[in-house]
Amino acid sequence: MKTTTTFILLWLSFFGVNAMQSKTEPADIETQEVYLSGTGKDDMVDWDFFCSDGMNSGKWSTIGVPSCWELQSFGNYNYGKDDFKIRKNEYGLYKHQFNVPENWDEKEVKIVFEGVMTDAEVKINGKLAGEIHQGAFYEFKYEISKLLKYGEKNLLEVKVNKASSNTSINHAEREADFWIFGGIFRPVYLQASPKENIERVAINAKADGSLEADIYTASTKAKSLRLSLSDINHKKIEDLAATDISKENGKWHVTSKANDIKSWNPESPQLYFLNIELLDKKDEVLHTTTQRIGFRTVEVLEGDGIYVNGQRIKFKGVNRHSFYPSSGRTTSKELSIEHIKMMKDMNMNAVRMSHYPPDKHFLNVADSLGLFVIDEVCTWHSPYLDTKVGRKIVEETVVRDVNHPSILLWANGNETGWNTELDGDYAKWDIQKREVIHPWNIFNKTNTMHYPSYHVFAYDTYAKDKIYFPTEFLHGLYDGGHGAGLDDYWKQMWNMPLAAGGFLWDFADEAVVRTDKKGVLDTDGNHAADGIVGPYGEKEASYFSIKEIWSPVYIEDRYIKSDFNGVFRVENRYHFSNLNEIKMVAKWVQFDGPKGTDKVKVLSESTVPLPDLKPETKGAFNVDLPKNWQSADALFLTATDHNGLEIFTWSYPIKVPKDTNKSNIISAGQGAVTTHVDGGLIKVEANGIQYTFSEETSLLQEVKKGNNSIPFTNGPVIFDHKDKIESTNVNKLKNKVEIITVFEKTDKSPGWASHKEYSSDVIKWTIHSNGLLDLHVEIKGKKIVKGFKGITFSFPESEVSGMKWLGDGPYRVWRNRMKGTKFQVWENDYNNTVTGESGFEYPEFKGFFSSLYWARIKGKNNNGFTVYCNSENTFLRMLTPQQPKEDPNHRVSVDFPEGDISFVKNIPAIGTKFQTGDKMGPQGNSENYFGNDDEPISIDLTFEF
């Protein structure tokens, strides 16, 4: 990042440091920058504009720059691989007047375009600035000193063709699997440097402090260089002695060594400024420039792994498009910060730029906050860039991005889109000689196969000597993938020596605001609904699953029972940090019941010393047990990093549901219970509540409290149950009534070793004098079950307004996405979000919720009810989620059982766009093991209406 003085407020200021200012050098030896556009989506500058086709076409008006013109209500929307070919002739004309200071006539002036979609013809005062630029995602510039009028107004004209005249560019980036936009979508500015100047610098700063730089200059007066190193606040640390300087063909090569530096890594992203002065024969400064750098060493060792600073690393990564719903590919520094903070919050350490170089500020933030980056040129599937234009694009990519310490690898296109003739071009421009990969391919030292099934990933031996990291895996269409399956995949990735992690697809749903359709959010069906977060950053459940699974503090699964000794086994899954740098706090807590205030009462809080564990080593820590620990409802363990940011909070229930609910369920006491059997119905009344059951099946038919009907009916229906009823009996006892239904016994099916009879299924209702309703259900055992095990009731969705519960939340779970929740009291309002498709209101209200203790179901036109679950390991099924419209292979649409509100012992997995759940690891298995054939599954509930 260059140090310059500006005439306007500049945007390259990171975390309180304005890297464009210099207090020690006069402006005439620095590069000055003046923006002709805004700096991003939030501060556009109006230019004159004409669009040839579509919305608001055929007339001159104004448009904000930078922007994608579709989002400013011009032209046509196109999702590339579907319909771009019919819009090839769409273009836009831009005009903008600007002033140039009179004293710039002694400077070299360039105009810089950070990104234009896609062919750009630039004129200054009616004259071409240079050849037409092709390629949408690449920075280009023209030297325009001789075209300017100094001290006067100047006219900039730009013609932008949405399609390129180069067929290979259209194949590579205009007919791809993402939204296609037109326009000057990244900033435009003027750059004024002394005539004798440093054109650019390429730096290789290694972890041991050694440094080499290629300094490009056409100066004839330059005779020497002076280098110094400053900290991130521009305070000089040391002058750097040049140990070797050589010159050839406009390039100076210099080597040096810095002392007492700290290396850069994503856990501690230490940055410095390298100051370079170009000196004449009198040692007077001709030009000065500053580059922000990080000292780090990258090695890709064949048959071994990817090493940073001598440490073998694993990518915990995600793919990310440059995108925002209301501005398309035009983003902002603030958005880059927001996105990377979310990635870091998910405990990610890497991002792949899909499928083109990002904005410069995104890479600056990756350097500052700490993320590994794979930088990629834009190609997609079989067609690729022709060699001539491809070489120009590779040069533009590497020259712009070469000095970012965050970039570890270059990607030559995507999914067979690569032109192998370009592989060697990266090294021509990259002084660090970083490796080039072919995403989705076995190439050189790496295997980056996309979307492997779990068993292929774990056991494939075709390329077993390659460093294995899928650059796309667990495709996140709708609610599938991402956190679903990740726990299984990551166990393999972490433990396989040659696995170097992987990159989830992808970060955010690309739902674009359709200015031609009254502002609706459009994901082009199932093409762009793949995010961990929604279009505006709404966090889906997988966000928190990833956060737990990828926590660098890895705690083995633990269950707290009466003989709990406070010991937790832990592994340090950092690559560069000692575990004792992490703060851990333990809280023993109690929760209010359904009628409480939802406040968490902390019984005891203490800091937990973590052991001295180097990266990738195991140990244990102890949590002190306070005297009253068994009276707590849960233990919370919260880990925070050295920046004070939460790594994760783990929660552990202390009591089983039956013991927790004792304090919430009111004792029945004395009172009358009346019973009437007539017309096939059993009617029982207690404390003003009337229950009606079927005499034939004992299923609940109606609940009335006074004159208010509560539409909780038709249950308990036992799933997949075909046994006939043997008997139903009504027992009138003191202060209560029992209704007991016993089903006929059923022999085991042929083929079983033993033909011992199963126990009978039983449904037992108990109505107490205070109106409480107990339900006990016994379902005969079977070791291996594919269908649902549990019971269900009816409750119209139209009558539900929300729920409050004690259990895991606030997000729903799938069998292969159980992590990321927290055990406590939660409250969600009703919504009908279809994940990634509509609503984008999270958490989703409907689905399966784990570890149910109690739940208060809120009614719209009724009082609802509270249910206490006294059985361990029970899931609450709340209504049936609406299925997404476009899931042709039914992989991310989960079949729900009958009924509306259910209590189940097993739940299904969810798949991805490319795989069913059972192909994604053991947790996606459709079979469930329930243990002893002779012991029935019991479900015990208490209802309070």
From TrEMBL:
It is an enzyme of class 3 (hydrolase). The keyword Calcium applies. Keywords: Calcium, Glycosidase, Hydrolase, Signal. SUPFAM superfamilies: (Trans)glycosidases, beta-Galactosidase/glucuronidase domain, Galactose mutarotase-like, Galactose-binding domain-like. Residues 1-19 form the signal peptide. Residues 203-296 form the Glycoside hydrolase family 2 immunoglobulin-like beta-sandwich domain. Its cofactor is Ca(2+). The keyword Calcium applies. Belongs to the glycosyl hydrolase 2 family. This is beta-galactosidase. It comes from Zobellia barbeyronii.
